């Protein structure tokens, strides 16, 4: 019997330099640039880069499937890029005084909790947690909320609609983010107890 934590994934190649992986590397390299743009107050440029980031988030997966270049590295790079983007962005927004510390702690604590599961996974010969739809939804909502929160801030473009919509999406996204995280913890507990399905 196979645990729900075991990702069932087929890969097309073990090459590192595939087109989708290059796109993912570019996304990773854009994270510090995006953060610097926010800290320096170049908000419109930061949002433009965010739009490009969001597009490449979809493009790399599409290309991997279309070109039959799905790789284990690519499967790992995608969620790493999302996590780094979220962390770097909320820290940059915190530096600017746009988001409160509690919002950063809520998002960071969830990722720390999941990082603590890695030794359990490795002990059971597993390398990663599969992404569930709740986690994908939470990540999408948070990624969508951050530029709106930025543009709605008084120190930025001060758009009230962006402020409110951004925070609604951000809070809902954070709740979904945590629900997904707790589901992962539940599966890890089942794994430790030897329960499989």
Chart the SSEs and their pairings.
Layout: H1 19-39, H2 43-66, H3 72-95, H4 101-115, H5 118-123, H6 133-152, H7 160-192
Main location: membrane
GO cellular component, one term: membrane
Family: Belongs to the CDP-alcohol phosphatidyltransferase class-I family.
Summarize the structure.
The chain is mainly α and 197 residues long. The protein has helices at 19-39, 43-66, 72-95, 101-115, 118-123, 133-152, 160-192. Helix 1 packs parallel to helix 3 (72-95), helix 3 runs parallel beside helix 6 and helix 6 (133-152) packs antiparallel against helix 7.
Give a written overview of the molecule.
The chain is mostly helical. It has a single domain, classed as Four Helix Bundle (Hemerythrin (Met), subunit A). Helices cover 73% and strands 0% of the residues. The protein contains seven helices and no strands. It has helices at 19-39, 43-66, 72-95, 101-115, 118-123, 133-152, 160-192. The longest helix is centred in the last third of the chain and has 33 residues, at 160-192. Its main location: membrane. This is CDP-diacylglycerol--glycerol-3-phosphate 3-phosphatidyltransferase. GO terms for molecular function: CDP-diacylglycerol-glycerol-3-phosphate 3-phosphatidyltransferase activity.
């Amino acid at each position: 019997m196979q645990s729900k934590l075991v990702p069932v994934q087929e890969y097309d190649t073990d090459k590192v330099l595939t087109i989708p992986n290059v796109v993912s590397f570019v996304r990773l390299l854009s994270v510090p640039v995006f953060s610097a743009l926010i800290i320096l107050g170049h908000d419109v440029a930061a949002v433009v880069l965010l739009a490009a980031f969001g597009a490449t988030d979809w493009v790399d997966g599409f290309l991997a499937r279309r070109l039959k270049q799905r790789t284990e590295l690519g499967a790992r790079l995608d969620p790493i890029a999302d996590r780094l983007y979220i962390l770097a962005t909320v820290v940059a927004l915190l530096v600017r005084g746009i988001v409160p510390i509690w919002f950063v702690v809520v998002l960071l604590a969830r990722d720390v909790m999941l990082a603590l599961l890695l030794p359990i996974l490795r002990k059971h010969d597993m390398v990663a947690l599969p992404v569930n739809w709740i986690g994908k939804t939470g990540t999408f909502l948070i990624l969508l909320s951050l530029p709106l929160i930025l543009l709605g801030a008084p120190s930025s473009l001060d758009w009230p609609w962006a402020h409110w919509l951004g925070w609604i999406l951000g809070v809902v996204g954070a709740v979904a983010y945590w629900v997904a995280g707790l589901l992962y913890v539940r599966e890890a507990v089942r794994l430790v107890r030897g329960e499989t399905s």
